[in-house]
Design a protein that fits this description.
By secondary structure, the protein is mainly beta. The chain is 6% helix and 42% strand. It is built from 5 helices and 38 strands. Strand 1 and strand 2 form a beta hairpin. The two termini are 38 Å apart. Belongs to the carotenoid oxygenase family.
Length: 500
């Protein structure tokens, strides 16, 4: 049984934010029944180690990357983990580490920080996984990538985005457009002329094509963005930085150099995916967001998505950026203090009037949202996310939530003794029209499928892999892990019937 214990700084490691000291490769026992059609691999990414012999990180986002793999086949679950072989992993072993919320020590600052800007200082690719060219790669918010074997999880090579990606950071939430056969993402350049670059990468290629560029005086922290059939939507939240602060030596971490400036409001840049032209710059109320949910054209029920005059942008939002500070480990290991939970917010952008209007679809708290892949960039109905227990939030997410964006109604799977990871929707490829709910592309019900997630049972001191019916979140199967798995970030399901 896993226990809480002191880390390298004398801080108690709380389950979920604890370090693991071994890798696993085993078949998990399954209780219940996996659907016969469910075959494929769930690849997940997140921190696996927070403390080392010579030190520890300060922020949840800075734990060393460890891949998790769950292969579902013939009613069985095969489980494997591997740490990524990165420069950050090697540096941490020697007590030299800096990252998103962990500041460099003075020695490292003097030797390195005058030559490198903080966004380039880590290749700890711990946030997400993706496909570029013929390779599977791990992503973070810098331009570093780590290619790995999707079956063994062994690191193949350390690399970077091609030089055509013009920035020191890029989001770890690219959008894949299956119809156009491309991935779209956004990079941020910090400097005398700071800018956001929107770029595309064709499927099966490493070639980067720049779509558009937007200049900015004080770059915003961007973790994700919106994509519709015609447009890219950059929501420039008022958590901003003066570029010189990222170029000057300091004992502050990367994110500590950003400041909350609510008087700026939120600036929505709407860019044409075809021409690169900025078709609108709209100002709205100040808010903060890590994760976009969906975006589409046609702003009201019954309005055709082919009408581009209004855009819908759905996000999980906060009133300010305090959520970042609540994820420092010294706070996460102590008593649970009430913090603001994320709300499901819909922003309508009227391109003709240049106006943004916001409404709350669900007051929260909801975290790490996912939707059906076929519902992206079109009117949709269901969002799946962590159930963080209402407003305000106290403690770790104790369940999974499904929100109907039309009615605001929430369906829940709750186990308060557990802490839940991101839920991932997997569509049933054999589903046909006729069930209730929204309809995804091809006529299948939008919620025809399953939700895959993990939960950490703190009382038992171990984690479980869960398969839930996406229609009502009833449990179909669970597979206990042989240990407690640290809470991770994001993952992708690679179906056996289609690899994309």
């Amino acid at each position: 049984m896993a226990t809480e214990e002191g880390d390298a700084r004398g801080r108690t490691e709380r389950l979920g934010f604890h370090s693991v000291d071994r890798e696993y490769d085993t078949t998990l026992p399954v209780h219940g029944t996996l659907p016969g059609w469910l075959a494929g691999t769930l690849l997940r990414n997140g921190p696996g180690r927070f403390a080392f012999a010579e030190g520890a990180v300060d922020h949840w986002f800075d734990g060393l990357a460890m891949l998790r793999r769950f292969e579902l086949r013939d009613g069985e679950v095969r489980y494997r983990t591997r740490f990524l072989d990165t420069e950050a992993y090697e540096a941490a072993a020697n007590g030299a580490y800096a990252g998103f919320g962990t500041a460099p020590d003075a020695g490292l600052l003097r030797r390195v920080w005058n030559r490198l800007s903080p966004p380039d200082a880590t290749d700890n690719t711990s946030v997400n996984v993706w496909r570029y060219g013929d390779e599977t790669v791990a992503l973070t918010e810098t331009t570093a990538l780590t290619a790995f074997d999707p079956e063994t999880l062994d690191t193949r090579r350390r690399t970077d985005y091609p030089d055509a990606v013009d920035g020191q950071t890029t989001t770890a939430h690219p959008h894949h457009d299956r119809e156009r056969g491309e991935t779209v993402n956004v990079a941020t350049r910090f400097g005398r002329q700071s800018s956001y670059q929107v770029y595309r990468v064709p499927d099966g290629s490493w070639d980067v094509e720049s779509i558009a560029r937007v200049s900015t005086d004080r770059p915003s922290y961007l973790h994700s963005f919106g994509l519709t059939e015609r447009y890219v939507v950059l929501a420039e939240f008022p958590l901003v930085v003066a570029p010189w602060r990222l170029l000057a030596p300091t004992d502050e971490s990367f994110i500590e150099r950003f400041n909350w400036r609510p008087e700026r409001g939120t600036r929505y840049h709407v860019l044409d995916r075809g021409t690169g032209d900025r078709v609108a710059r709209i100002e709205g109320d100040p808010l903060f967001c890590f994760h976009h949910v969906n975006a589409y054209e046609g702003g009201a029920e019954g309005v055709s998505a082919a009408d581009p005059s209004t855009l819908v942008v759905d996000m999980i939002t906060f009133s300010d950026a305090a959520a970042i500070g609540s994820l420092y480990l010294e706070d996460l290991v102590g008593e649970d203090d009430p913090v603001e939970g994320g709300s499901l917010t819909r922003v309508r952008l009227d391109l003709d009037a240049g106006r943004a209007s916001a409404e709350t679809l669900h007051p929260g708290g909801i975290g790490l949202p996912r939707i059906a892949p076929a519902a992206r960039r079109r009117p949709y109905r269901y969002v799946y996310g962590q159930d963080t227990g209402g407003q305000p939030v106290t403690g770790l997410p104790g369940g999974v939530m499904k929100v109907d964006v039309r009615t605001g109604e929430a369906t829940r799977y709750r186990r308060p003794e557990c802490a839940f990871h991101e839920p991932v929707f997997v569509p049933n490829p054999y589903a046909r029209d006729g069930a209730t709910g929204g309809a995804a592309a091809g006529g299948a019900p939008e919620d025809a499928g399953v939700v895959l997630t993990l939960c950490l049972d703190r009382a038992a001191g171990r984690s479980e892999f869960l398969v839930l019916d996406a229609r009502d979140l009833t449990e179909l199967a669970r597979a206990p892990l042989p240990h407690a798995l640290p809470l991770d970030f994001h993952g992708q399901f690679l179906p056996a019937w289609r690899h994309d």
